[in-house]
């Protein structure tokens, strides 16, 4: 049985016709999620947990978004349908295994590329 975890939507970081990159919080753990598919009224996102030091490094533009999904050893992946969000709360399903290459963000995508303001990064 898949393990589920709740998260709260903190902010949309990139919005191009619809959210593309978003920040989440699950208890004390922060996550970054990228849009991976949209069809049949669903908006599938792929999320990764982000430790505090990596969160800061990303927003200080010392690492790119791809780094968060591929390099840190202590990370977990989740999937969710953004359309199922109720009052800012999302239920995510644990994703086992390696991140699918087609779901990974492009290299050299840094926080400077965000289209929306987000000040609560520390």
Question: Would you give an account of this structure?
Answer:
The chain is mostly beta strands. The protein has one domain. 11% of the residues lie in helices and 43% in strands. It is built from two helices and six strands. It has helices spanning 52-59, 65-70, and strands at residues 4-15, 19-26, 29-39, 42-50, 77-81, 89-95. It has a six-stranded antiparallel barrel with strand order 1-2-3-4-5-6. A hairpin with a 7-residue loop joins strand 5 and strand 6 (89-95). The longest helix is centred in the middle third of the chain and has 8 residues, at 52-59. It is globular and about 35 Å long.
Structural features:
6 strands; single chain; 11% helix; 122 residues; 6-stranded antiparallel barrel; globular; mainly beta; 43% strand; 2 helices
Topology:
Blueprint (H helix, E strand, L loop, with lengths): L3 E12 L3 E8 L2 E11 L2 E9 L1 H8 L5 H6 L6 E5 L7 E7 L27
Antiparallel strand pairs: 1-2, 1-6, 2-3, 3-4, 4-5, 5-6
What is the average per-residue confidence, as pLDDT, rounded to a whole number? 92
Strand order of the largest sheet: 1-2-3-4-5-6
Query: What global shape is seen?
Result: globular
Largest sheet properties = 6 strands, antiparallel, barrel
Show unreliable segments: none
User: What is the number of domains?
Assistant: 1
Q: Spell out the helices and strands N to C.
A: EEEEHHEE
Distance between the termini: 35 Å
Kindly estimate the percentage of residues that lie in beta strands according to DSSP: 35-45%
Global Rg: 13 Å
Number of E-state strands: 6
